[in-house]
Amino acid sequence: MNYIIDHLENCSVVTSKVDKLDATNASELKGELVLLNKNGVNNIIIDLTATKYCDSSGLSSILIANRLCKDSSGNFVLCGLQSSVAKLISIAQLDRVLLITNTKEEATDKMNSLTVNS
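-> structure tokens emitted (118 positions)
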């Protein structure tokens, strides 16, 4: 399994175990995200600490997570970006659209504050 899913009190954390988030495994991530959403999870954190490379397929799966959460009145937080992934997200100007934190701990704190205020 390329992704580990932890269910917390107010969200689910999807932790990537892949070095490269690309066309070979992005569809698996998309499938996990859609399944979570269909099961009523509308607050999702994706932790990409282990991921050193991301292509357009990977970005697409991240954007799907964001859209699924927004469409179900939830929240999405992305965390643990390696410099190359952060650079790609910045070039695509997705850092203006996505809520991004440095660590999973910061992401869960942010999610807790977002869900309390919702």
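The two ends are 33 Å apart (CA to CA).
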